Amino acid sequence: MITIYTTKLISKSFIAEDTYQLLFEKPDQFEFIAGQYVFLDFAKPKNTDDRPSMRAMSIASAPHEEKLIFVMRKSDSAFKKNIDAMMEGDEIILKGPLGLVSLPENLHQSIIYIIAGVGITPVRSMLKQEEHIASPRAITLFYSNRTKSDIALHDELKSISLPHYQMINTLTREDGEWDGEKGRINGEMIKKYVDDIANQMYYVVGTKDFITSMQQVLEDLNIEKTKIHFDNFG
Fold this sequence. Notes:
alpha/beta, 6-stranded antiparallel β-sheet, 5 helices
């Protein structure tokens, strides 16, 4: 049974090209696991289209944080227009939490995130939780975006304080000066930064096309399917 809450918008700000960070009050008794998502809905949506008024949104905040954070790209959908029109103090309906994606209980199981765009949202939650518990886990984040201006949460994720953490940014369309990787994430890029690729747990989050592409990359690397978790982020 899904639990339903009402919460209020605290703030809304741009953190990358056409990308919002939304900060909401955390409802009393609301608890979740890092990596879970909720449905956000409007009681009386001002804008409607042929899609349902609610959307599944991964929680970007970690369970120990006092506020709820969500990250989303702008679009012309009715739901996004309703989000765009929200002002501080406006209410929204929250349904959940839902989802079973979480990190292994064994803190010595190393992991690799392969992420595109705003698929970074649940990863922020999991990384902040790992930081909170001072995890010894080895974590490698491969984060793909089109251009520098598209990178969401870059500074915060770059400064995650974990002893065995590395973040590799790669851009697929940037032609200007850039000190990170360029091009799509591929097997050679993964092997460049990770020695023991066979014994990692892989978390892949992005669009359908991105996931399809990364499935092939990991298959070519002979990674066992049981060690891969996919999350289609739209």
